[in-house]
Amino acid sequence: MRKTRRRPYAEQRPQDLGGGVWSVPVPIPGNPLGYTLVYAIESPQGPVLVDAGWNHPDAWEALRGGLATLGMDVASVRGVVVTHFHPDHAGLAGRVREESGGWIAMHEADAALVRLIHGLDAGEHEAFQTDMLKRAGADPGDVRVVAAERPLPPARPDRELADGDLVDLPGRKLRAVHTPGHTPGHICLHLEDADRLFTGDHVLPDITPHIGIYPYDRDDVDPLGDFLASLDRVGELGPLDALPAHEWMFPDVAARAAEIRHHHEDKLDRLAALLAERAEPLTLWEIAAMMTWNRPWEDLAPILRGMAAGEAAAHLRTLEVRGSVRRVRGVDAVRFQAVES
């Protein structure tokens, strides 16, 4: 499979990828990612979609029109298997179900999160966000903006998948591979009869997925540690062709997984060195502001600072598990400092 450069959404077109697999680019309005690549897999009882795209009228028209271009009616869709619950992947799954009567499937861990999200009203969500941000030492202005953000929750799934389960895809073998990190229930999907791996956001050709902890100060999980282990697991599948949810398709998913692991190990080393230079414990917000992002901290919008803090928290937690960092619980905020060797 030939590696290609990333192209803007305006240059994207639905594609026949051969072997009964097609791709449809679905826009994400107002998001720098540009689009989600939704995949359709042929079956004698109607296509099964891998992801569905963002819940927006333009995205719906792109999905429906793209499938029609490829000779498929959205009403014939047998089901949607969602790689993870984020809105650019699961957002339109409910609309597809309404049109087709098909099922929605996702990993059981993300299904539990979807139920939790549906159970929170707007006030509870805002209170959760506000408390989390204050404990992280966030600026008051950032607290107000980030706490008010709440995307529409995704549709509840009809079916829950566990690691190793086969998706209901007659005539094909599409197996769920649990790859937690980006979300607790993220899955890749191994099309075993074609040596292809639908990687969702787990392994992307040029960028790396967001790995965060929410709330930031949880000490009972290690999402980055889970992610690194999941990269190793994908690597063990061998040099499969990767069909990711963003950017472009590429060969040898194992090689790219190794590159991403190296990226995070380097980031962990730099963060540990940064903390070792400081005598006093620092809040999460202070640490995040000192780290390197794709633009200066002061230029990040509040919502992006919130995500950066989540990623900083995940890296700090992995360093804590490895014994390089300890947390100091204060009255106003949790702080972190290096452990003297």
UniProtKB/TrEMBL annotation:
Which Gene3D superfamilies does the UniProt entry name for this protein? Ribonuclease Z/Hydroxyacylglutathione hydrolase-like (3.60.15.10), Winged helix-like DNA-binding domain superfamily/Winged helix DNA-binding domain (1.10.10.10)
Q: Which residue numbers delimit the Metallo-beta-lactamase domain? A: 35-246
This protein's source sits in the domain of life called Bacteria
InterPro entries, alphabetized: Metallo-B-lactamas (IPR001279), RibonucZ/Hydroxyglut_hydro (IPR036866), Sec-metab_biosynth-thioest (IPR050662), WH-like_DNA-bd_sf (IPR036388)
Ion transport keyword on record = no
Record keywords, A-Z = Hydrolase
Record keyword Hydrolase present: yes
GO MF annotations for this entry? hydrolase activity
- Name of the protein: MBL fold metallo-hydrolase
Q: Which lineage do the record's taxonomy fields give for this organism?
A: Bacteria, Bacillati, Actinomycetota, Actinomycetes, Streptosporangiales
